[in-house]
From TrEMBL, chains A, B:
Keyword Heme assigned: no
Family: Belongs to the Fur family.
Single Gene Ontology BP annotation: regulation of secondary metabolite biosynthetic process
Keywords: DNA-binding, Metal-binding, Repressor, Transcription, Transcription regulation, Zinc
Cofactor: Zn(2+)
Name this polypeptide is given: Fur family ferric uptake regulator
Length: 152, 152
DNA sequence: AATCTAATGCTACAATGTTGCATCAAAAGC
DNA sequence: GCTTTTGATGCAACATTGTAGCATTAGATT
């Protein structure tokens, strides 16, 4: 890649990693870019598939550790979602924690950017670090096709 | 047990099961009573330990299935919580779905009965079946002892 | 008591995530 | 550019949480 290039997505990921004092590896770069490209939080498996697509060797453990590191550094955040697997999304700049919607039909998690996950007032003594608000139901796509259950 | 006894907790559980057309088994009765006694949602393992204590043979699978059945029947409900295991709590009468607090220090889940888990207005097409609101942080007990991390 | 079948107990398996350790390679030093 | 350092990886083995199939048991009904 020649110089005189305006900072592309690839560079952003590299810089992001370096800025946090980590080593810039193919895996980390690819994971960050996958998260940046995605409109919704990705599961470990989905990210793994992306790495496959990019021809990047991916050991399960390495991927878990890469994701752990991104979360530790505050570059990404973990979403509990409805199923048993974590999902991950990149942390944007003016980041206010938002709610998520879990579709019980297609299994997808949708970011509800406009719905804040705000912590209400709690009994004395409780210190809230973060709030997670997850709505479960049928997403717009799934609701449209077949209200009577039929298919998925 | 003699007659002329006012309906105790044990009977309630039996009646609850029968009312839903299920067979009254030791496992189901013990599980319901454990949930009824507990002030906070219980994990599968915690319930299993209770059964042990009551000298009731408990196969992992049976317990999972008993809990599934209770949830299907609307007798109990599942809480996602912060960790990877489901937790279960009994469904009370005038039951409004409430928020939960997950203490990241002691791992406990606390019911916030007074904090409703209300679903906000969503984009058109989304059908919300239920809302889950989980606050993460340090509970009153854990916050009190040692703000500086030290121990748990 | 005999019958019917829902629930159980077992085994085997799947999915998700973790630990330990040898090896590799990114970044720094020369 | 070559060497050194150590963070990151890859592999094997394991832990936890949850499911599926199927023979057996026991709760309810007659
Ligand atoms: Mn999101
Ligand atoms: Mn509760
Ligand atoms: Zn959907
Ligand atoms: Zn606590």
């Amino acid at each position: 890649m020649p110089p005189h290039e305006h900072p592309a997505a690839a560079d952003s990921a590299r810089e992001l990693i370096a800025a946090h004092g980590g080593r810039v590896t193919r895996t980390r770069v690819a994971v960050i870019e996958a998260l940046q490209r995605s409109a919704h939080p990705l599961s470990h498996d989905e990210i793994g598939a992306t790495l496959d697509g990019a021809g990047i060797g991916h050991d399960r453990v390495t991927l878990y550790r890469a994701l752990d590191w991104l979360v530790e550094q505050g570059i990404a955040q973990r979403i509990a979602g409805g199923e048993r697997a974590w999902r991950f999304e990149i942390r944007r700049d003016g980041d206010h924690r938002h709610a998520h919607f879990h579709c019980e039909r297609c299994g997808q998690i949708v970011c509800l950017e406009d719905v804040p996950a705000a912590a209400p007032t709690l009994p004395a003594g409780f210190a809230v670090a973060r709030a997670e608000l997850v709505l479960h139901g049928a997403c717009a796509d799934c609701g449209r096709a077949g209200v009577e259950g039929k298919e998925g």
